[in-house]
Amino acid sequence: MGQARNVINVLSADVVVVCGGGGPGTASEAAHALNAGRPLILLAVPVVGGFVRWLKRWFVS
């Protein structure tokens, strides 16, 4: 399913909550949430470092 799974998860949610840094899948779901205008809550996410780099890779402004 690839990215379709992440898009389906985000579009079927009212709010997206990211816990921890995760990996590229987590970052892509966060980016999809931002692109879809869904509220995004980050819990225990390292703001500096890998997660932000992954998020920038997926976020399309």
Describe the 3D structure.
- This protein has 61 residues and is α+β, with helices and mostly antiparallel strands.
- 51% of the residues lie in helices and 13% in strands.
- The chain has helices at residues 3-11, 24-36, 50-58; strands spanning 16-19, 40-43.
- Helix 1 packs across helix 2 (24-36) and helix 2 packs across helix 3.
- It is globular, with a radius of gyration of 10 Å.
- The N and C termini lie far apart (24 Å).
- The model has no long low-confidence stretch (mean pLDDT 80).
Fill in the keyword field for this structure.
alpha+beta, 61 residues, single chain, 2 strands
Order of helices and strands: HEHEH
- Largest beta sheet: strand ordering: 1-2
Extended strand count = 2
- Rg value: 10 Å
Structure annotation, total helices? 3
N/C terminus separation: 24 Å
Report the sheet-strand fraction: 5-15%
Name the average pLDDT. 80
**Largest sheet, described in full?**
2 strands, parallel
In summary, what is this structure?
This protein is of the alpha+beta class and 61 residues long. Helix content is 51%, strand content 13%. Strands 1-2 form a two-stranded parallel ribbon.
